[in-house]
């Protein structure tokens, strides 16, 4: 299975870093937007690679926030502090194995299921920059979400709420200055590590489901290489500037470093695969050497022959035992049977096959009997139809009764046949020819089964006889071993 690309990175857009939510949204969407807070215009309309951009709103959000400039100016206005945190910014890789339409549809559904469903306003843009790294495309999508939630009434809610510290009596605790001690608790779980982990996992699962749907042997994993148990060095995030330079053929330190890392990781994977294969082979060899070897049929048959010859009173009897041993051994060799396990497996398979063939033969025989009955009824019908037709044509009752009396047997069998054959009439005709052809075919198939069964029965009979002889030897060996163990226990005690 191939491991596909997984990249799911989140940061915050904040004023303390000199950032503007309006400018960030303009860059990601490739638009021209005016920031009321900074009094400046950000124009990225000439930016290439933006495939589409869209704002997804929860049901309680004001509809005017579907306009990008209105939305992010409202976010900027709601934040008064000089170090305010404005928005979450996500950078998520798309898959080269999917078409762009499939990628966009997948991204939109992911955001609806995981962000919008939580009440988050979501502004996303899909990028497909020029191919880089020797022709490898890097499609991805950016997502911006306001950190401040929207209340059910459409206004901006608080990011945090105060949770006062209480003493053992349930009273608020005061600090040295006489102020109530409290903890600032987020009003949402959007910034929690567990939530980010759930989002990363959900995105991986959606992509993997799409891989499976398309029949692709690819998967992605949201976990780090370390958590996956993958001995691989992660590459450094290059960023848009480095990528733009590399795309123009300008080599950078980060680009060179990542290329070296990819080669090193390839060597590590190859070495790990070879070591794993060697260890697996050694384990298989050890397991085979440690496995108790099953008794050989030849040895057991030879022991059975020797035991019989111990009680033989004549050379003729001994020679007969040797001949039976030779025939049994030769038969086993012809079947490639050398161990008791081989013998039992073959017998089991053979009995299953015999059972299947017998069942099939029985079904065919039952159908033949059914067809014979249908053909017999059909003959009664054919023989009596002209008589019945003539009876129906006689108008006078006395003549009818006389004719009926003269042909009573024929008419009785005709009417019986007519009743039984009623379900089989098609367009007023009986499929007599089809029945005969089916019967001939079933007869041939039945004969073929019997031909196949005959040698199987013969082989099974021989094998069961050998199996019985082997059982006798093993039973005697077990009896002797039991006696030896008992004697040993008696001596030790």
SSE blueprint:
Layout: E1 2-3, E2 8-14, H1 21-29, E3 32-35, E4 40-43, E5 50-56, H2 68-78, E6 85-93, H3 100-114, E7 122-127, E8 140-146, E9 160-164, E10 182-186, H4 193-213, E11 218-219, H5 225-228, H6 239-247, H7 253-290, H8 297-310, H9 315-334, H10 340-393, H11 397-406, H12 408-421, H13 432-492
Parallel strand pairs: 1-11
Antiparallel strand pairs: 2-6, 3-4, 5-7, 6-8, 7-8, 9-10
Q: How would you briefly describe this protein structure?
A:
The protein has helices at 21-29, 68-78, 100-114, 193-213, 225-228, 239-247, 253-290, 297-310, 315-334, 340-393, 397-406, 408-421, 432-492; strands at residues 2-3, 8-14, 32-35, 40-43, 50-56, 85-93, 122-127, 140-146, 160-164, 182-186, 218-219. The chain is α+β, with helices and mostly antiparallel strands and 493 residues long.
What does this structure look like?
- With 493 residues, the chain is of the alpha+beta class.
- Among the domains are: 2-158 and 190-222, BirA Bifunctional Protein, domain 2; 340-491, no CATH class.
- It is 57% helix and 12% strand.
- The strands form four sheets. It has a five-stranded antiparallel sheet with strand order 2-6-8-7-5, with helices on both faces. It has a two-stranded parallel ribbon with strand order 1-11.
